[in-house]
Design brief:
The protein contains six helices and five strands. The protein is an alpha+beta fold and about 210 residues long. The protein has one domain. Strands 1-5-4-2-3 form a five-stranded mixed beta sheet. The longest helix has 12 residues. The radius of gyration is 16 Å and the shape is globular.
Length: about 210
């Protein structure tokens, strides 16, 4: 896997690599351990919010953790479930839907690039097609991203849809510094969360990621 990752990094567009690695070049310095600037985002919450919905929905903005790169075999501790900021792998996941879980170290890097990551935990052996369809609709509700279309890599918006057996609710979503958790796939609040927090990461990149985990 590490050999594949190294080849992938070498093939990424030079501008994407420069922007991403430039931010983390001082990851071992004391200054790199400070929390990222939150000025890019909307007002933070003092306590969770519970919007009107068809089921219990909780939206929160956990404290921002330092955005540093770690090794692929690193054990990472985050301050929210799902994670919404903090250490992550040097490569991010391709912007698409997955049927197998994307490791968290990859999708947290997507969040840093301003992506919305939609998550579900399905206990049924047959899957949760209705939930996945709702998450896809929430992704589809985000307007075309000119940063992505200009990249010419076939990406319309920066979103990832993936199962995550570690979340403690059936449905969740994350943006950089923000967490959405729900007991069902409530489409209106999912769409509102995605549209409000899309494209608000500290690194605005739309170069596509990897599917090799």
């Amino acid at each position: 896997m590490r050999i594949i990752a190294a080849i992938f990094i070498a093939l990424l567009p030079a501008v994407a690599l420069a922007a991403c690695s430039g931010r983390h070049a001082a990851a071992d310095d004391a200054d790199a351990m400070t929390a990222p600037d939150a000025s890019f985002d909307v007002a933070r919450l003092d306590e969770p919010e519970y919007p009107d919905a068809s089921c219990r929905v909780e939206i929160d903005s956990p404290p921002l953790l330092p955005a540093i790169h770690v090794q692929f075999d690193a054990s990472i501790q985050w301050d929210s479930n799902p994670p919404s900021s903090g250490p992550h792998f040097p490569i991010w996941a391709a912007y698409q839907a997955y049927t197998s879980p994307v490791p968290r170290g990859y999708y947290v890097h997507d969040l840093e690039h301003g992506a919305i990551v939609f998550l579900y935990n399905c206990p049924d052996a047959g899957g949760c097609p209705d939930v996945v369809a709702a998450l896809q609709k929430a992704s589809d509700s985000i307007p075309d991203d000119p940063l992505c279309t200009a990249a010419g890599e076939g990406v319309r918006v920066r979103t990832v849809i993936t199962p995550d057996p570690l979340i403690d609710v059936p449905v969740a979503a994350a943006a950089w510094g923000w967490v959405y958790k729900a007991q069902c796939a409530d489409l209106p609040t999912l769409e509102a969360f995605a549209q409000q927090h899309y494209g608000r990461g500290p690194e605005e990149l739309c170069s596509n990621g990897t599917t090799e985990f």
